[in-house]
Protein 1
Amino acid sequence: MPMRVVLHLDMDAFYAAIEVREDPALAGKPVIVGHPGKRGVVATCSYEARTFGVRSAMPSVVAARLCPDAVWVPVRMGLYVEISRRIRKILDEEAPVVEPLSIDEAFLDMTGWAKDLDAGAAIARKLKDRIRAQERLTASVGVAPNKFLAKLASDLEKPDGLVVLPKEAIPETLWPLPVERLWGVGPKGADKLRLGGLRTIGDVARTAEDAIASLMGASMARHVKALAGGEDDRAVEHDRASRSISEERTYTDDLRDPREIDRALLARAQGVARQLRREGLVARTVHLKVRAGDFTTWTRARTLREPTDLVDPIVGAARELLASRVRLEGKGVRLLGVGVSGIAPAGARAGPLFPDADTVRAKRIAGAEDAIRAKLGDTAVTRASLVGSGLPMHHSSGKPRTKNGRGFPEE
Ligand code: TTP
Ligand code: MG
């Protein structure tokens, strides 16, 4: 198992830093972003303004009292969103898994790419350098074996910080902090812990779980005990909207027979549809990738009318792309891939008000296939057109599947 390496990146005084960048005359001054009126609130402020006690979400009248000489600038959301997108692009280029949390922060999972936390710190340095060079803005980054510690670490030396927080540093770094800093412990939870005499995270770490359970319940006690010991196994979840699911194979002998090519398309589409259903997702765009024997490569995409998790619309779009937008001109197919993007949770949208009978039936069959597969294993259900299609192939993704028909009802 490679060591987990998680980064948390958070831009410093994001809106305010952008405003200072846009107007260098503001540099070094206490800058407040927000409306100074009676009903206004502070969006954020420069670190100079923070020395006066000004904070995000503070009523503007309070901020004006604390820092009468502040320069107020209005919020320019469009500009901040545009810059956020450009920073996101840098993160996507440097990290395999990016989970954005807000307009100015994200988790990055470098596990397997960075062999240890020091290698993770080198990547963090590179990210900070690229953001500074491209956007003239600073970011703070935490590097740790999990999300909880990484987020905590990014905050420790703001602004322009880079903090590596290994497990060994927990007693020194984590334990002196107040219990509020435990993820999921709000003001109420903190009160409960304090009633039991627990003020710092170290107090929680040194107290038996049973004793904590009597203060805040068993499941919360288990949760805070794990965090206080620096344990957190939440996964960094790649942003769904930018995610894609695909399956591709490379063939030792180029496919030439159109029926063989079509069977391969169907098999890849089935794998993709099954993965969508397994994760409770639907997708809107279908991608086709074809590489010919001479390495000419086509990637083509088509957006469906309705998002789907069914094989038929996916293979239908892939077939159409292959027929109309790939010019094989007699060349054999060396690689074939089908993928989807534009992914959303299946429950998020209502679907057509009156689904047609075919869709209802296809959904029922897909559900039944998935159930059988769950019970008997991945190879139990195969469509009739796949039976006997013993194609020589390398498995470049997905699990190997063998031919094995079991007389499942055909559509
Ligand atoms: P934060 O990252 O919380 O704050 P920040 O980037 O300004 O400062 P820090 O150096 O401490 O990270 O939030 C990012 C942006 O989100 C912030 O620049 C403005 C906006 N924001 C609000 O509009 N209202 C709020 O209450 C908060 C917390 C943030
Ligand atoms: Mg920030």
Note: The pocket of thymidine-5'-triphosphate (ligand 1) is lined by residues 10-15, 43-44, 56-57, 103-105, 158-159 (CB under 6 Å).
Protein 2
Amino acid sequence: MDVSPADFARFRAQLPRGAVEIMRRIREAGGEAYLVGGCLRDLLLGRPVTDWDIATSLTPDQLHPLFRRVVSVGIRFGTLIIPRRDAAYEVTTFRTEGAYRDGRHPDEVAYTRDLRKDLERRDFTINAMAWDVASDTLVDPFEGLADLAAGRIRAVGDPRARFREDALRLMRAIRQATQLRFRIAPATFAALQATADGLAAISAERIRDELTGLLLAPEPSRGLRLLEEADLLRIVLPELAATRGFAQNRFHSHDLFDHSLRALDAAPPGDLGLRLAILLHDIGKVETREARGDDYTFYAHQIVGARKARRILQRLRYPNELIQRVTHLIRHHMFYYETEWTDSAVRRFVRTVGSEHIPDLIAVRIADMAGNQRKRGDRTPLDELQQRIDEVIAKDTALSVRDLAIGGHDLMALGVPEGPRIGEILRALLERVLDDPEMNTREALLAAAREMQASG
Ligand code: ATP
Ligand code: MG
């Protein structure tokens, strides 16, 4: 792989103004400035760039006076955030890192004027290149360009030592291999396996962020298989590791691990909650499997699975709202729609699941079917269900107690005492209305309520 002047011209055209200005100002002050890391890698690959990182020979003290606004002295030592009109840029002084005693943080960080030293501390060769925009020089001391061309993740330096220094790199290697659809070089992969235990020292939040990036990749199963082969899955998602080789029943063509991964790959793009729900939808089968004749059943696995998924996602510190949604989808993924369903059955389904979750549940089902060769799905019934639900919703019939034509106050006016009895009656009225939407009028409901009140 060679980078031609025409390539550089193309990259230059993509540079945001703010980055160009910052680098110009640094050069005018006598410093060196390079684009480094992920943005250069992504430019070379023709992928969209998310954040533009600049490395410089100037120290933070030298940088401060050059810019009107320097918002925060970075999360990591020697990093400044410089906000410009178009974006905020991370500007990092060339630095070396001392030993890592805890597998997470370097004991000391020292500035250097030597770019090569800075590149040496970076994790993978494809992330350890620098581009001097003014002279079109590509600094590539570790053959990152060749690895990019070969589609290969390779550690800079001795891979075992690098993973022992900072175990987050274990997750970064696999997340980036998944996002880029790269392979991991053999020695780097062997080092992953040898140092996998180190991941236990990394916080749940940082593991979660890498896992999220992996799950949102176009073919996330690659990442989960890599985690499994690298012996990291038992640390990140032991519950999923336990599904490896777990046999299902005659309705399934794959073991539970394979089925979950195939379903996951069929998930729609860009929706983390949906992907987590699909990945974990059958996780409760492990606890609920029972032999029945020469086959297995998994009674109530959706209930056990929803509870188990909640614990998993809480441990990984996913936000509560996301956990709610994922566990709700898992809890309700076992519906069996048939054309024979009555309209009141359709209304009850919407009442139980919530209209806002219906498209997600159908997406879970479609992915579930795609993950199973023996059920290769006919989606016609699902489309029919969606259509019937749309009709129910369009008719504006009552689907929850809130939609009833009377409320608690009306019941109290009838002499029902304040307390749990009010809710009981309202729920009983809703059941009637779900059967017969015509009943949702004040007169009809008040009459029915009087009757219930009289009969206790
Ligand atoms: P992306 O932004 O796509 O997740 P990235 O490689 O840009 O990928 P960042 O976290 O933005 O990742 O880090 C920017 C650069 O900093 C990386 O390209 C790499 O050179 C370096 N880097 C980040 N994390 C580490 C680490 N744990 N160990 C060594 N170098 C790292
Ligand atoms: Mg980045």
Note: The chain has a mean pLDDT of 93.
Protein 3
Amino acid sequence: MVQSSLQQISELAPNLAKLDDRVRQLEATRDQPGSVDRTGFDVIELRDVGYSYDDRTPAISAIDLTIRRGEVLGIIGPSGSGKSTLLQVLLRLRLPTTGEVLLDGLDYTEISAAAWTRLVAVVPQEPQLIEASIADNIAFLRPDVSRVDAERAAEAAHIAGEIRELDDGFDTALGPRGSGLSGGQKQRVAFARALAGNPQLLILDEPTSALDAESERRVRETIAELKGRVTLVIVAHRSSTLEVCDRVVSMAAGRVQIPDGA
Ligand code: ADP
Ligand code: MG
């Protein structure tokens, strides 16, 4: 046994060295946010923003876009046109490889990580629920989100009633990846999670594309109720979801097409 373990270790050693290199590479490019505290904004400006994964053709390029406080901006475009990449850059999950993102004139990387995570929230395309109670899924490791906040967020996301009908209500334990809830319910729990921190900027990546009609209607109601209070950027396909937007821009091949007259 010792002999064969030694054999395995010597076979794996080169991979460990590679892994070590990769970790060092990634750490070198890690977002190193600044220390400025910001609790709100009037305008977010993207100036000539581009992002490339590796050294290939940029996934997005030359994006100039201004988003004003309280606006609901819709983004449409075919699959692969760069919508999710743009959202990830907006969220600061990926930093632009060209250009800059300014928050009231301040480069967004200057803002501290703590302030940034209070400012922005996302409802991802696939709700990322964990094996924990529904209340914990909504609070999601944020000690400042109380039980009352979690329930209020669930009300706002039009999921509270369905949660209370479960035997253990908000204490109901979900299985891996949130099993125990329907797809539409998971999406609304993810929405509640995003709302629980009272974000100023809420980003939604195709929040209704995979939903049944009833869940879609409820998500749409939530969006309509947030309008004017929270700045929303929504990637959407359904025309019913797009109707709530103040402005819709379309993307093609990594660029934003500005409509005539805008
Ligand atoms: P959309 O959301 O509009 O479908 P994406 O932003 O997901 O578009 O993708 C834009 C381009 O970037 C596509 O060519 C896609 O293959 C590429 N891409 C997306 N994510 C990654 C990734 N993690 N690594 C490498 N390439 C990616
Ligand atoms: Mg996408």
Note: The chain has a mean pLDDT of 91.
Protein 4
Amino acid sequence: MINNLDFSIMKDGKDYKYYSNGKWRKSTSGDLIQVYNPYNNELIANVQACTMEEADKIIKVAHENIDCWEEFPLNKRAEILNESANLMIKSSEKLGHLLMREIGKPLNSAISEIIRTAEIFKATAESSLQISGETIIGDAFEGYSKEKLSITYRVPLGVVLCIGPFNYPFNLTGSKIAPALMAGNSVVMKPPSQGPLTALHFGIILEKAGVPPGVFNIITGRGSEIGDYLVSHPLIDMINFTGSSETGKFLAKIAGMKPLLLELGGKDAAIILDDADLDITVKAIVSGAFSFSGQRCTAVKRVLPMPGIADKLIEKVTKETLKLTIGDPAKNNIIGPLISSKQCDYVQGLIDDALEKGAVLKCGNKREGNIIWPTILDNVNVDMRIAWEEPFGPVLPFIRINSAEQAIKISNKSEYGLQGMIFTENIDLAFNIAQELEVGTIQVNGKSSRGPDHFPFLGTKSSGLGTQGIKYALESMSRPKVVVMNLSEKGKLIKECFVPEK
Ligand code: NAP
Ligand code: G3P
């Protein structure tokens, strides 16, 4: 019990239930999905492998409760989001520990993820109170008079399906839920099967904060089993998805005629010019490439250094990388386990391919269990898989370049377009290069990242569709409604009504 939050009703022993229409339920499938700690492979808990029938039912519950929630005034919704944030903060230690265990995130980062989500809830509540429409008078166009006015305001889309990835399972479901609810939608949330436990706690938190039963619902289950059914369901009015480009592209094909917000994979490249500040650059690269063992969409995933700085940059990055702590996430080691043994195998395959094709190993290429040591590869060329594929692990390739033009070409050749980085003291040149990069965001003299969360965050090409970030997410999960007033000609009589003073 935390401040009268009773989490015990969520589960029977180790078996967590799913949350629909204000009740915690067991699936009729009788099938459970095991959730293992990727660090020590302990079985933490099980979640329900829900059926398509249960998916259909939960979506219909959300659909039936749209009106009830839309009737809540904006200030009441804001109050509920703020209370939700307060409850998250009170539970941040407990939820942070659970998050650490279920995905292997360093403890402090896991607790920060809970608190960051609370901050998003608060900021969403606050920014929503500024939502307004506009009134336009028709006489700007020939043939139209002042008697024609358009009055616009924003309305919810309906049922929003929120699907999150394993690497931020609480934050990247919460950052969808908050704007969806604030805009007046009802929600069906599906957490990742590799990290569902912390996100399930939204059921307790939001109910306690005042969200009525049926407005917010959580279904657990394998994306491969119920994912297609969920995204293509006719009563789903909008999909807000974060995950791999492969999954995102697939669901975009089958979703049908509904708005999509897709935050997908990345291969963020750091262009390092000869005049870059070495200390700033080294710190950004090491932190950007290896925090949470590289399991971030905005991780630094390619470094393109010019000849004048390359050697000393690679030496300093290697030296700092060798200082990174490795091991138990509970002890806040920077390098911990990847999410699964299968993911480790994939990352190892990229390393082996690069070495077979002539890359130079500077450090790493060692594995124990699900931990891969931070690995730096020099002299990577465009024939190697690591130059183009997203490892989602602690591997950093250096692709040496001879000109900014070559750097732009290699950056843009990627299928991904999430973020890019330019390190130089010449800000004019940085701005000119930034204009040429086919990405959502360019960081100048800083590592790629999503925060702060009121900034626009988007990917181009295979990195996504639409824009996250509080204000942008609110807009994406609502639409304008327009009322055009065709006032009568009576308005013109007013002048005749005035009797000039004698
Ligand atoms: P993933 O395998 O694509 O899974 C993401 C979510 O999609 C999970 O909840 C998954 O459920 C669900 N899913 C799987 N198949 C589905 C289907 N057919 N229909 C609907 N949903 C389905 O990605 P991940 O491994 O969790 O996350 C890593 C990837 O996400 C990386 O590529 C990373 O770059 C990307 N990512 C991007 C951002 C960003 O903001 N751009 C942020 C974080 C991560 P199950 O778990 O049950 O399969
Ligand atoms: O992969 C998660 C993505 O949203 C990056 O977030 O804050 O680590 O840059 P952040």
Note: Residues 2-133+157-264+463-478 form a domain with the Aldehyde Dehydrogenase; Chain A, domain 1 fold (CATH 3.40.605.10).
